[in-house]
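DM between two lab members

TW: hey, do you still have the Transposase entry open?
JB: yeah, one sec
JB: this one, 132 aa:
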Amino acid sequence: MCQVYRHNLTTKSLINYHFVWSSRRKRKVLKGMVAIRLRELIEEVCPDLEVEILTLDIHPNYVHAFLDCPPKIAPHQIIHRIKAYTARHLRKEFEHLLVLPSIWTRSYLVSTSETISQEIIEDYVKNQGKRG
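TW: and the structure you got?
JB:
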């Protein structure tokens, strides 16, 4: 997949972040209908942030997302908005999630893909569930 640089009047950019975040206390709550709805919610909120999803992989207790992001939003703002939006909607729609103090931990991992290719990150994300 060949990506295109973002353009506006004063900026040309190509910024890809690899995010990983987990459920509170690594509880395996991101499965079945919750995982399906989580994917839909992430796909809903990303266009509002001008973020393009390159790869998204949801596991029972954590999420990998490889995102093409605009330069005007800091990584901590992107992940905060995604986590807040998804938590708010998931807790409204799935009553069993209300027993958790929160769905997400406050922590997350973010890295850039400057030194490795997008294909390597995509392959890594897709194969996470296949490792023992």
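TW: got it. The two ends are 28 Å apart (CA to CA). The first strand starts at residue 6 and ends at 7.
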